[in-house]
Design a protein that fits this description.
The protein is mainly alpha-helical. The chain is 60% helix and 0% strand.
């Protein structure tokens, strides 16, 4: 192979790597207020899952804040749902373990939810958080009512009734986690 082609391949590889770093880190600045004070939920994530490494908690915190802003959710609710869905486990987040129905990533998306996701790599925790927030917004729109109803419907293949939602173990678990980290917007 000629030297110019080798240089071109090397330069292209460097550009691709830098672009990937930018994409992965794009949400971190948005987790800080105008005066550079953190507005993230790192402490709450560590309360939900003490086994999270601090750097991972900071990165995920930023992603929950950005996705919450983008889709109109409390970031604490998104984090509580991720804890309910995946225990915020690295193995689940990176798809080293897959759910029985093919659920992928921290937000455990599959089927229609995964196909409609705004990004396609559910094995990337940042993409999974964004996709889960998007899907929850879709469910909230399709299944109006209480937080119970759309949080329970997140994992169902249809909108739940209020009675089904309040009896749903997963919704109760999400609510308990949400309240345990200071969430106040559950209706």
């Amino acid at each position: 192979m000629s030297k110019p082609i080798e240089y071109l391949i090397s330069a292209t590889w460097v550009v691709v790597c830098l672009f990937a770093v930018v994409l992965v880190c794009e949400c971190i600045p948005d987790a800080y207020g105008h005066d550079s004070e953190p507005t993230g939920i790192t402490d709450e994530l560590l309360d939900l899952q003490p086994a999270l490494p601090a750097r991972a908690a900071e990165r995920l915190s930023a992603a929950f804040v950005v996705a919450g802003r983008q889709y109109g959710h409390d970031p604490l609710l998104l984090a509580s749902m991720a804890m309910r869905e995946s225990s915020l486990s690295r193995e689940v987040g990176h798809c080293e373990r897959v759910g029985a129905l093919g659920e992928l990533g921290l937000m455990q998306l599959h089927g229609v939810a995964a196909r409609l996701a705004p990004c396609s790599d559910q094995c990337d925790p940042i993409c999974s958080i964004r996709s889960g927030a998007y899907w929850l917004a879709q469910v909230r729109e399709q299944c109006p009512g209480s937080t119970w109803r759309w949080v329970a419907s997140y994992g169902w293949s249809r909108c739940t009734t209020e009675e089904e939602a309040r009896a749903d173990t997963a919704a109760r678990r999400a609510r308990d986690l949400y309240l345990s980290v200071g969430g106040t917007l559950w209706e």
